[in-house]
Amino acid sequence: MRGAKIIIFTLFLAAAAGCGSRYGDGVQLEKQGRLLQAAEEYRAFALRNPADPSAPKALQAAAELYAVKLGLCDRSRPLLERLAREYPSYKLPGDVFRRIFVCPDYFPAATGSKWRYGDSQTLGLNARQLAEVYDQTARGAVMRNSYYAGDEFVSSQKKVYRFAGTNFMERQDAWDTRILDYPLEPGKAWTSVGPEGKVEFRVEAAGLKVKVQAGEFSNCVKIRRRPAGTPSWIFEYYAPWTGRILTSVGGPGYENRVTELLQYEEKK
Question: pLDDT tens digits, residue range 40-55?
Fold first, then answer.
């Protein structure tokens, strides 16, 4: 009799452990706006119930919350890797995968986003640039760049930005240039073409803290852009969820600031 009670109690504990997390609990927490708790619930459910039909869906939901809503990229990527490894038949839509995998996003291009830049020497008194994403088309996000000398308007320029896989492309006139190649890891290099001809890119550094007029930004990446065969190059610094914050020119043994971010306005 005592042995039967022990067996029943053991089965009860096993059942209780299995019911500790439910997919529906994650859904409810997400509806309540408790996003971190929802992500943890989805994750716990998937790990404890790997054979459940909702397990891959829970991994996707957790990864998307961590990456897109919470900016916790280190927590999202292992879940994507588990999803691909353990559920190969689960088809994650390409746009969803990119939205989660491109984390952090170093060039947000939502309609309504605005960047105000100024020359680093006078912080915009001598030269200013206003960049604004004003439209989304089938070809990508359309940005207008307006340039000023002091208060006098000089010229404007249109560029279009889009993803091709996990490559972030900049189209200007007839040129389609791959300006970012995710994941952005130090030492990574690629070549593309631009208005200046063949261009060599390299991730010089990551995890940088950079201070500009708009503030101090952490976890920045530094990208070197050099027209093939030239003795000098351009450095562009990108901050997570903000975009380009600093541009400098460099060569052997030197680097000089040129323009920096004065203000950034997100989509409203």
Answer: 999 999 999 999 999 9
